[in-house]
Amino acid sequence: MESVTVVRGPYEVRVHRVSGGPYGARAEQTGWATGPDEPPLSRLHPLLGWTDQDAVRAPQGTAFAPWALAPRLSADATGNRVFAAVATLTVEPPAVPVSMAVTEATVADGVLRLHWYDDTVTHVAFAPDTGVTWS
Description:
Blueprint: E1 2-8, E2 11-21, E3 26-30, E4 41-48, E5 52-58, E6 68-76, E7 79-90, H1 98-101, E8 102-108, E9 111-116, E10 121-125
Antiparallel strand pairs: 1-2, 2-7, 3-6, 4-7, 5-6, 8-9, 9-10
């Protein structure tokens, strides 16, 4: 598994490439664990490859709360896969919601192109390209 994180303002785009995942393998991505009534706010939005979304309890809470939840994405990771998601951890919601920060994620010639809300485009590529299926 290879990973890269692209940081832009309050947003993190987390990209993971799985090569040769065994049958039945699962991938998970979590945001930060936060308490029910505490800032900061943890958000996680799927862009590419993720099929399931829920929240998971942090078993020991945080330094600020006795119990906490973290947003979680998951999907089958059998074979060759690529996953991407946008994450934020902010005290107040950002000007552009996490679900609208990246307006489009497209793949061509083994390069992931992230089209941001302000028309900026970021390119993400893993080298060498091992024939990963981008889905």
